[in-house]
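Support request, please re-run this one:
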Amino acid sequence: MPVIDAHTHVFPPDVIEMRDRIAARDVRFSLLYASPKARMADGTELSRYMAEGQIDRAVTTAFAFKDRGLITTCNDYILEIARRDPRLIPFAAVDTEDESFALAEAARCFGLGARGIGELAFYETGFGARERKALDNLADYAQKNGLPLMIHVNEQVGHIYQGKTRMDFWELVAFVETHPDLVTILSHLGGGVCFYEFMPEIKKIFARVYYDLAAVPLLYSKEVYGFVARYMPDKVLFGSDYPLLSYKKYGHDLDLLEEAGRQKLLHLNARHLFG
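Re-run finished. Output below.
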C-alpha cells in the first residue's frame, strides 16, 4: 500500500554540524535540538528512510529559527532537494514573530516551488491572542494561494517534555474561524483539539482542518488510531515527525486498522490534499 509521510524535518549538513553554536544563540532551536540525543537528518538520510520504510512521498520542512539567514538557508536547501527528488513536498518554514519577513519568505518560497507553509510553532511564547493576530496576514496569503498552513499544537495535559507549551484553544478556534477557506494542518492530532469536533459548531468551523499523527506514539495509546480511523477518517494524515520517529514506530498498529480507514490515513487523505 502507498504511504505518504505528511510530516518530516531535514536540515542542510552544515547546519547539523553547527548545532551547538546555533543552540547557544537560538532559544527556540535549543529547546528541541540542544541535546546531542535529539536527532537531526539531512536530505540523504530522508531519502534512505523513505527507501527503507517504502515511503512513496514525504512532506518536508526544517525549523522556524529566529535567525533570518538560517531560515532562508534551510528553505533553499529543502527546495533544492525537492527539485531533485519529486517525491518530496516542500514546506517553507518562517518565524511568526517576524511578520513582514514571514510573509516575504513565504512568497519567495512559493515562487520557487513550496507547496505549503510550516511547521509554525510557538515554543517560547505559547499561543494566545497576540500570536493569533500575528498570523492573520500570513494566513490570508496562504489561503489566497492555496497553500496549506501547518501549525504545531501540543496537548495541554499529561507529561512534560521539551517544547511543550500552552495553547489557548479558544484562540486556535478563533484563528480557524477567521480563515474559513484556509486549509490548516494541526500537527500531533492538534493537541487533542480534534476530539472537540464532536461538538457540531466546532465540526462546522473546522471543515477545512486536517490533523497529522506526528509523534503520536509518544503521546497516546495505540487505541487512538482506531478511534480517528472510525470517527474522523477523512481528516487525519499519517506523519512520522521523522527523524524523531519513523514509520516503523506506527506500522504494526496501523496494520490492525480496517482496510478502508488504513488507506485513508496512510495515503488517500494526503493525496486528496496535496494532489
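The radius of gyration is 17 Å. The domain at 4-274 is CATH 3.20.20.140 (TIM Barrel).
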